[in-house]
Amino acid sequence: MYTKTSKRARADFISIAFRRRNSALGLLAISFAMWGTSATAQTVVRLYTYPQGAYGQVAGVTLQKLIAKNSKSLRIESLPAAGREQYADYADASPEKRKLMILTMLHIEPVLGEKGQIPWAKPVPRMKALMTFSPNSAAAMFTNDPSVKTIYDLAGKKVDLGLPGSYIYNSLAPLFTAAGLMQKIQLLPSVSLNQGWQRLGDKVVDATGAGIINMRLLPPGPSDIVKKNKIYQVDVPQELFKKAQDTTGVPQLPLPVKKGAFKESYALDYEVAREDSGTLAPALTAGFWVSADMPDEIAYEIVKTALKNIDQFGNDHALGKLLKEQIGHMAVPQAEFHPGARRAYQELGFSYGLEGIKAHTKQ
């Protein structure tokens, strides 16, 4: 088990830092590891977060601060590198080391990990959920062609689903497969979200994807394109969600973007989401995931600390108001949460999982 006084733990952490030694983040990781040499013994949990400034990184820093302030037995060391490196580091780690690692992922990646599919290089046991930092969010396709209403209308079109392993690809490819469209579209993947949206604005592609935050907001690059060009959300027919889930085993929860949502958010003179009953997109709930073998008391203390200090997330995080009620709203059944996390949610009266989402939407 990692402790602050463990030389092996510090050596492991330093080795990762040196693999990224040209980065200031690598130096920060080294300083974290060296700082531990003089402190009293604590269990160290390594957290892989998204890059600097991303929602996941902000949530990770908040969690790190809360644990440092409120826990005598735990410490979180944050490594902002939740790309392919986290999957390789976790898969290559021993079962003992995996017990004290937190990855930042969508609800899709644990299913892919069990199968050893991209972004994983080899299979790993099914991981368990702790909490989300992007509740009520989805991944969707957008087009510059007003005649395209549903993904079926993209047959014969140039479509950017992103690179295999990206959140757009992992969220939407199963739905395109369920619709029988993967062989009927011309795939032109972009290397980044902003590149895809620039290509959409320049009409190099007919459709590309992006996350929708709180079902009404787009990331900065896409939101700029929407303000300058007429861009429309592409609806995913309801029946494809169950078909995709039955085929892949990946949870697929349809979320509606209400007509007028984007128009109001960006003061547009046209509708991006055009369906009267709501334009459907697959739920996208990024969050923190751990080994099923993480000790129950550690998972419990991490989640309990977050829930008892939920106002801090509101102070630090752009989605803080949402997180106060929906920090457990990940698009997976409650059984997919770590037992220690489930205990914390139940004791403190927070809803969580698909069951919590469904109960919340009925209110």
How are the elements arranged and paired?
Layout: H1 7-19, H2 24-35, E1 43-49, H3 55-70, E2 74-80, H4 84-92, H5 95-98, E3 101-105, H6 109-115, E4 128-132, E5 138-143, E6 158-159, H7 167-178, E7 186-187, H8 193-201, E8 207-212, H9 220-228, E9 232-234, H10 239-248, E10 254-257, H11 261-266, E11 279-282, E12 287-290, H12 296-308, H13 310-316, H14 320-326, H15 339-348, H16 353-361
Could you explain the architecture of this structure?
It contains 16 helices and twelve strands. Helix 12 runs parallel beside helix 15 (339-348). The termini are far apart. With 363 residues, the chain is an alpha/beta fold. It is globular and about 60 Å long. Helix 7 (167-178) links the parallel strand 6 (158-159) and strand 7. It has a five-stranded mixed sheet, with helices on both faces. Strands 8-5-9 form a three-stranded antiparallel sheet. The protein has a two-stranded parallel sheet with strand order 6-7.
List keywords for this structure.
12 strands, 5-stranded mixed β-sheet, 3-stranded antiparallel β-sheet
